[in-house]
Amino acid sequence: QVKVEESGGDLVQPGGSLRLSCTVSGLTLDRRAITWFRQAPGKEREGVMCISGWGRSVYYGDFVKGRFTISRDNARNTAYLQMHHLKPDDTALYFCAVHGYPDPSTTGWNIPNGYEYWGQGTQVTVSS
Q1: Apex CA 38: angle with CA 93 and CA 80, to 5°?
Q2: Cα separations in angstroms, 32 against 84, 97, 106
Q3: Based on the number of CB atoms within 10 Å of its own CB, is 107 exposed (0-12), middle (13-18) or buried (19 or more)?
Q4: Could you write out the DSSP letters of every residue in 11-36?
Q5: Phi and psi for 63 in degrees, rounded to 5?
Q6: Could you report the per-residue pLDDT of 34-75, keeping only the tens digit for each?
Q7: If DSSP states are collapsed to H, E and C, what string results for 79-110?
């Protein structure tokens, strides 16, 4: 049974930083892309950042603007999302998703239907 578990969400002040973790069990990750999505109340789920199976490609939403980085440790079956310079607009439930392929490409990475496994999400709240 595959389990995807996110952690690291918290309440943080504007301008602050957080690191989210995504740990996957029951599945070998090295041939699968991992993406962080987020969903704010009343808004659609949107792709944040994606890293390909071997870490050679990274895709991200325009709103990231150099503030976030994504990384993965295949030996630990874990991916990370490091976020800096957080804004109130970053407030959302952040999900980790595992794709069915190593590299979903620039046109496919932010399409939720392509992902086989999802976590329950971790809440990020940016507020003073």
Answers
A1: 90
A2: 26, 10, 15
A3: exposed
A4: EE-TT--EEEEEEEESS--TTS-EEE
A5: -70, -15
A6: 999 999 999 999 999 999 998 899 999 999 989 999 999 999
A7: EEEEECCCCHHHCEEEEEEEECCCCCHHHHCC
